[in-house]
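Onboarding guide, step 5: your first structure request.
Type a short instruction followed by the sequence, for example:

Predict the 3D structure of this protein.
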Amino acid sequence: MARKKIMIVDDAPMMRLIIHNLLRNDPHLCLIASASNGQEALDKLPEVEPDLILLDLDMPVMDGLEFLRHARLKSRARVVVLTSIAPKGSPKALEAQALGADAVLSKPSGPVSYDLADKAGSEIRQTIYRLLGIPANPEGTMSGTGIRL
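The system replies with structure tokens like these:
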């Protein structure tokens, strides 16, 4: 199976690094691009053609909701919103889903969640694998990662 291409869109450089570190050794995923706001991400979409976008909502220049309004015209990438301002079921989370987000996940400790891997890493990976159709192996772990489902 070819590695799936991931783009990270978050205005916080530390958050982009934390997400990168969470996913960098995954044998099924390839981190191909990052952007610090929605406009930068839109500009990169035709060039990088990601399979999945991890998207923050609260960003300068163009926020995540505005990005979603335009992204479907440029890309078929799956979108996972990863945010601290829109818990599941909140009006912003529902708006993001109405605009095409495939999933909305919460950052566990605010805009820069240093504990992301410990508190939400498994949920993020499971969501990515489910959306991209990466199967679990017979032992009940995500294929090739050793992460138990």
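Each response can be followed by summary notes, for example: The longest strand covers residues 29-35.
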